[in-house]
Specification:
One of its GO terms (molecular function) is lyase activity. Belongs to the Orn/Lys/Arg decarboxylase class-II family. NspC subfamily. By secondary structure, this protein is α/β, with parallel strands linked by helices. 29% of the residues lie in helices and 22% in strands. The strands form 2 sheets. A 9-stranded parallel β-sheet has the order 2-10-9-8-7-6-5-4-3. Helix 1 runs parallel beside helix 7 and helix 6 runs parallel beside helix 7. The radius of gyration is 23 Å and the shape is globular.
Length: 385
């Protein structure tokens, strides 16, 4: 059923429960068929009001900061799989207490904290804590350098020449993360590169974390190939495989609902200003960059149709998106709906320029709207001093 927008404030991120469940059901079928563990990556989707739904299908989550670790503990009830490019001395004790797996980004990081890990395990014999090392297979098909962890000079992961012939004592697992919204064919080629460089070490490992970027909920994704690849690796090396997708879980599960505040002519170009911000509320569209889809609009200008350059409400000159065409002229108060705005969007929002954050809500399976959170002056003030 269609969403009743009369109930929803503007701007607002709206998660659709039925769409989230559809994704999770598919992901659950993959982990059962492949015999692997698929866990939620908070860096892509940290909407903790939806964690009770996620928990029905997934048995773990991964964090890249102590704050994300706490969110997993508090709202999922799980010990975290934790990876950080570098750990803080002041946080490490708490991270050990709150994690089931800790991955180190470098040998120097492992050597620095190894003694503390051993002491913690000795003092807590009933606690399960498994450590791993992130590797760089020096192969990635990610086109945008900002998202490519295998570019020369990358700070993420250890290359094969820096590792010994045997995994360091105390290291149980190997972790790589070189995909970004890719298909299983890309994973196949990545695994070939991984095995070529690290195959001897995989035989020594207890688990292999394949990171995120597995966009298995995208239409056309070859699910059967993914299941075969994971099963083959598990059998060949006798280890547990872990996947931690970010985008796949919340892929196309919700929108950003916005409103036109003004329409004006700017040197022959029609401009519509919205009650949201590309820079503050959708920074991924400018970083990646990509042009978000708008419901009922044409992605590219169409000759003869009303065409507008959409802009945000901050004072940043570049706070605008490209030109879209519509079937009718835009007017103040018209609704603009940005599609697929749940993953990697809410997690990056800011209050730049003092602009309020969009509200957050869920369109429930019973076709009712639940307003989860709204923001105001206090939210802005609390981020400053």
């Amino acid at each position: 059923m269609a969403i009743d927008f009369k109930e929803i404030p503007s701007p607002c991120f709206v998660l659709e429960e039925e769409l989230l469940r559809k994704n999770l059901e598919l992901i659950d079928s993959v982990q059962k068929a492949a015999g692997c563990q698929i866990i939620l990556a908070l860096k892509g989707f940290s909407m903790y009001s939806a964690f009770p739904i996620v928990k029905e299908y997934l048995s773990g989550a991964t964090a890249s900061s102590l704050n994300e670790v706490k969110l997993i503990n508090d709202f999922m009830g799980y010990q975290s799989h934790t990876y950080m490019p570098a750990y803080l001395d002041s946080e490490f004790e708490e991270i050990m207490q709150r994690s089931s797996h800790i991955t180190f980004n470098s040998l120097s990081q492992w050597e620095r904290f190894q003694g503390r890990v051993e002491a913690y395990k000795a003092a807590n014999p009933g606690k399960t804590l498994s450590c791993g090392i992130r590797v760089n297979p020096q192969y990635s098909e990610v086109a945008t350098d900002m998202y490519n962890p295998c570019v020369p000079g990358s700070r993420l992961g250890v290359t094969r020449d820096k590792l010994p012939d045997e995994l360091p004592v105390g290291i149980d697992g190997i972790h790589f993360h070189t995909l970004c919204e890719n298909g299983s064919d890309t994973l196949e080629r990545t695994l070939a590169a991984l095995e070529e460089r690290f195959g001897d070490l995989l035989h020594q490992a207890k688990w292999l974390n394949m990171g995120g970027g597995h966009l298995m909920t995208r239409e056309g994704y070859d699910i059967s190939k993914l299941i075969k690849l994971v099963s083959t690796i598990e059998e060949k090396y006798n280890l547990e495989v872990i996947l931690e997708p970010g985008s796949a879980i919340a892929w196309r599960t919700g929108i950003l609902y916005t409103t036109v505040l003004d329409v004006l002519d700017s040197q022959g170009i029609d401009v519509a200003i919205l009650d949201t911000s590309f820079a503050a509320h959708m920074p991924d569209t400018l970083e990646m960059p990509y042009k978000p889809a708008i419901r009922g609009a044409y992605q590219e200008p169409v000759e003869g149709k009303p065409t507008y350059r959409l802009g945000g409400m901050t004072c940043l000159a570049g706070d605008y998106m490209g030109d879209y065409s519509f079937d009718k002229s835009l007017e103040i108060g018209d609704r603009i709906i940005f599609e697929d705005m749940i993953h990697y969007t809410m997690v990056k929002t800011t209050t730049f320029n003092g602009v309020n954050l969009p509200s957050i809500g869920i369109w429930k399976a019973d076709q009712k709207f639940q307003l989860v959170r709204s923001y105001g002056y206090e939210s802005f003030k609390d981020r400053l001093s």
